[in-house]
Amino acid sequence: MKAAMLRSVLRRSSTASSSSSSYILRRGYASESHPERKVAVLGAAGGIGQPLALLMKLNPLVSKLSLYDIAGTPGVAADVSHINTRSEVAGYMGEDQLGQALEGCDVVIIPAGVPRKPGMTRDDLFNINAGIVKSLCTAIAKYCPNALVNMISNPVNSTVPIAAEIFKKAGTYDEKKLFGVTTLDVVRAKTFYAGKAKVNVAGVNVPVVGGHAGITILPLFSQATPKANLPDEDIKALTKRTQDGGTEVVEAKAGKGSATLSMAYAGAIFADACLKGLNGVPDVVECSFVQSSITELPFFASKVKLGKNGVEEVFGLGPLSDFEKEGLEALKPELKSSIEKGLKFANQC
């Protein structure tokens, strides 16, 4: 029974069209033919990192799993390595082993840093995590400059611009290979919408655009499928709940954690999409915070098509309801400020 539950833990439907293939993780896929892919998790001993390491170990597209943190990684690596799936696991600890952890990576996932606690602002997070992201991205530029980088460390609205500037300084920046992981916003929007509309969540798609904090998160419920024709008050409530999802979890855990499990799940979903794109699977589309020209802001989250070189296409917003148009204009000043904060930090270093 436990094995069956575990094998189905990452069943998913893509945020792409219904033609996109879903997948289910399963044991005994050693005979399947997949390219060799090395994936690193930076911050693998943390609250997000540990369950994310587990989920990536279950992914049949991963052949080598590199787990890195400043401490505690050997134990996590030993634990995960006992799982009878394809990938070989190696644990690395401390700054002197960071390069070894990154060498040859195809995808680097960064959940490193401190999580949000009750009363903690995004500024508090920034003051700690910005420096961590800077040092990790400096190493990525040196040891695996061609890897797809999946940024989970908050505040994503600022850490992605920091990463971009660090890579530019190193001469390795490729806008197609840097992603802010906003998948948790999509996961929440799908879940909340399905509950309110009383439809099967497995068939629900909801694009989420903007950024990855508070009002910068804009779920486009007018484009949700299947169409439910929910009243305006329900749409407003669903939007607010999606925006405040992280706070909801922080408060429910009463100071003992943040949204670590759901974030690990979302991170695994997005990393899987990146791997599928690298492997040439067609029509892989997820929402992500990337360099963008669809608004006047230099970075913006929207639907992105993934391919062998990372971003193949950044999609426009599509038709918006009046409520969503208001939300779009309302989020721009805050998102602009967060982006500029990240750029300023990176250029002062």
TrEMBL record:
Annotated binding of substrate, by residue: R116, R122, N154, R188
Official protein name in the record: Malate dehydrogenase
Organism of derivation: Ilex paraguariensis
Entry's EC annotation: 1.1.1.37
Residues of the Lactate/malate dehydrogenase N-terminal domain: 38-180
Keywords, in A-Z order: Mitochondrion, NAD, Oxidoreductase, Transit peptide, Tricarboxylic acid cycle
Active-site residues, Swiss-Prot/TrEMBL: H212 (proton acceptor)
Domain of life: Eukaryota
Single GO cellular component term: mitochondrial matrix
